[in-house]
Design goal:
The protein has three helices and nine strands; from the N terminus they run E-H-E-E-E-E-H-E-E-E-H-E. By secondary structure, the protein is of the alpha+beta class. It has two domains: 69 residues, 2,3-Dihydroxybiphenyl 1,2-Dioxygenase, domain 1, CATH 3.10.180.10; 92 residues, 2,3-Dihydroxybiphenyl 1,2-Dioxygenase, domain 1, CATH 3.10.180. The protein has a five-stranded mixed β-sheet with strand order 5-8-7-6-9, covered by helices on one side.
């Protein structure tokens, strides 16, 4: 069973909307506005169709009682950026176009071949690592057996770290 949506907070709704519509190609499909639990506080909840079987939603919070927060789901919690991230399914033949879409938007990205899938990564305006992930082979019983052995092994053998390929967006200087 798939998930319906994942909801995250944003500090800059306009930048978030631009990233998820223009850089990711998602469509804004639903919005809700409701009062928060504090007097005078309110929030927008905006839902974007990811083109698959799920949505991604963002909270735009307007509540002085909530206080300052960092919306980055990893670095905001003191973790490396790669720990908590959001991965979206892509077909293998779409990765080149998706990568170029990011580069055309001025967004640097990184590509990694994990052996069973190939991923490209970028960072959204909230400091959240997002990923397009394309399966390169079906997972099989050997994968399942290795995962179960890894689960129960207190000192599993280290795997080979894949080599990332970095793609830098062209920088266009504007003269004022």
């Amino acid at each position: 069973m798939g998930y319906h949506h994942i909801a995250l907070a944003t500090r800059d709704l306009n930048a978030t909307h631009k990233f998820y519509t223009e850089a990711m190609g998602f469509e804004l499909v639903k919005g809700e506005v409701a009062q928060t639990e504090h007097e005078g506080g309110w929030a927008k909840h905006l839902f974007y169709d990811t083109g698959g079987d799920g949505l991604i939603a963002f909270w735009d919070l307007h509540d002085d009682q909530i206080g300052d927060f960092d919306p980055a789901i990893s670095t905001g919690a003191g973790l490396p950026m790669w720990v908590n991230h959001v991965a979206f399914h892509a077909e293998p033949d779409a990765l080149t176009n998706l990568r170029q879409r990011w580069l055309d938007q001025g967004i640097d990205c990184m590509e990694i071949d994990h052996g069973f899938c190939v991923s490209i990564y970028a960072v959204d305006p909230n400091g959240i690592l997002v990923e397009w992930c394309a399966d390169s082979r079906p997972l099989n019983q050997t994968d399942r057996d290795e995962a179960l052995a890894m689960l129960v092994d207190p000192h599993p053998p280290l795997g080979t770290v894949p080599v990332p390929v970095f793609h830098q967006a062209a920088v266009t200087a504007t003269v004022s």
